[in-house]
Design goal:
- The complex is a heterodimer of chains A (250) and B (440).
- Chain A has 250 residues and is an alpha/beta fold.
- Helices cover 49% and strands 15% of the residues of chain A.
- Chain A is built from nine helices and seven strands.
- Chain A has a seven-stranded parallel sheet, with helices on both faces.
- In chain A, helix 6 (155-174) links the parallel strand 5 and strand 6 (180-187).
- In chain A, helix 1 (18-29) packs across helix 2 and helix 5 runs parallel beside helix 6.
- With 440 residues, chain B is an alpha+beta fold.
- Chain B is globular, with a radius of gyration of 21 Å.
- Classes of the chains: A alpha/beta (250), B alpha+beta (440).
- The A-B interface holds A 42-43, 46-47, 49-50, 52-54, 56, 193, 196-197, 201, 205, 207-208 and B 2, 4, 19, 21, 23-24, 26, 59, 61-62, 65-69, 76, 78, 86, 89-90, 93-94, 247, 251, 253-254.
Amino acid sequence: MSVYPGSGAIAVFGATSGIARAVTEMLLSRGETVVLVGRSREALEAQARDLEVIAGKGSPPIFTWDVIDFANHRERFGALVAAHALKGLFMAAGVLFPQDECEADPEKARLTFDANLTGPALVMDLFAAHFKAKGAGFISAVSSVAGERGRGKVLTYAAAKAGLTAYLSGLRHRLGGSGVFVQTVKPGFVRTRMTAGMKSPLMAEPERAARDIVSAIEARREIVYTPFFWKHIMMIIRALPAPIFRRMKF
Amino acid sequence: MQRAVMSGWGRHPRVTAGEIQPASLREIPGALAGPYLPRGQGRSYGDAGLPAQDHIAVQSAGLDRFLSFDAERGVIEAESGVTLERILKAALPRGFFLPVTPGTKFVSLGGAIASNVHGKNHHRVGSIEHFVEELEVATPMGTRVCSATENGELFRATVGGYGLTGFITRARLRLIRVESRAVDCLRVRAANLDAMFELFRRHDADYEYSVAWLDTLARGGSLGRGVVMLGNHARNTGSLGGAAEPRAALRVPMPMPAFLLNKKFLTLFNRFFYWAGKRGGPEREDLETFFYPLDRIADWNLLYGRGGFFQYQCVIPDPRGEEGMAACLAFMSERGLGAFLSVLKRCGDDHPMLPFCRRGYTLALDIPNRGEETLKLLDALDEIVIRYAGRVYLTKDARLKPDAFRAMYPEWKDWMAEARRWNPEAKSDSRLAERLELWR
């Protein structure tokens, strides 16, 4: 049974990321069509080969598009819709650098904003207009619990994700009543390359995140925490008085 | 570079070392520029997966993509970091299963090859070496493709070579056909060791899989009592798909206090297990339950507390296999060296240059680490194993001494000569190799 009504493919951005990969597997197993979008053709080809083996539904199409290459967005979008009828967008493009690197190297700080916020927002603008004109379609984007209350350890990343969360909320407001569904995904710790080397008892598997995300798309839940308990954790963290929050080492 | 505290699955020893995780095969040459050790999922028990002093762990976890699947022949090609769990996910719906599987599916393909893993069907088909059609290994002397027929020596030094010839980047594995997810199994109790051997002899031919759990605290006439578990893939039940198992039903949240594993508790646990094995008659189990019972309990190694534990696995070859096992068990029982889960099984021969399995019996014991006392007992156990021409499995080992190793593995010099050809300056090196003085 399909996850979202309508015909057409779901474009998955940042397709080689851990969460997007698990989501793609699940979408394919549910009979959806997926276009893998990312900046490196080689990485996308490797991903498509992998999916062909694991999902057994042939090799999914790939499409190169670098979200930080702002100047080419219109051209890329035109080429994408010319090649594929689309019904959905899953946006998982993003980067995470250690905070000290962001502070030592302004390029990395800028990249953190461009790849997590500006690029994805500009891409979503194009999809939003396209889906609005059709009166159908969905946009689901991976933000982060880190965007809810900035902490020193991931300062720059948290700021970018906070911006993305606000952008998605604004997009949802703008598209209200248009027939387009907008979803904000807020993962906690998920075992992916991004969290390699991190140890936490709260670490979840990407398959778990994918299950939560896909079922939330199906149920049209606008904001989804994965795993669910992050909703409660963040409720507490947001409510902590500043003097206490400041003293917490995490 | 990030530094991290790491250990094997036994959580002893623990070392601090640099670690990197290449995200694709393209990053491999850069990752292997300095002194390193390949590291998969960290599921070997001792120090085989711990980098030597000043070496970094190059983790394969990011190399987790399939490359191809030949559905006609059931041959899967994958990067070395793909786990057996993921292979099962791709293979089972198409009617294929792993030809050989260890007791956990959370190991990497590369790690399984480097440890030349064996399973409950070793007496019938041998270790994973027979099913690796081809592998690619990035050695310090260059990257080579090898197989039983091409660069055969390098192949036989790399399979069961603990990462000491270089970094396995990808491999092709031949799977076996199954008709369902179900396993037809039979549990039979054996009142003592002789009855146990008799059961193995009787069922060797009619069951593909066999393994026995032993009550190592039983003494006297009950020495070696336990439950033999036998299984065959069920035919024609029609269900290959079905719901995927949850990754783990339970999780051990933190290292448990060591006193929980005292002798009283072990005795009770072992008695219960023996008692529970009573229900007779054939049953049908899902293969997840049959092959991977412990995978349902995430981080079960934390049950052994902060000090961790040793897994001691030895093989005693025929014709003295039965006699040797009896001697080991008598020693265990005499010293009150009770183990939680002790596993006995019949095995066949292995053929890599540094082989573990020999036609005979293999015994695996999980023993809590109580420091010096435990080490002394295990040293004494080594002597018994050596007396019966046996050997211990290095994938499980954290404490064997160099002399004992040389006595157990007379082939090690030939293997080392081949490993040196490809890794002349021990650029890929482990704590295991340091401890056993493999390069000397």
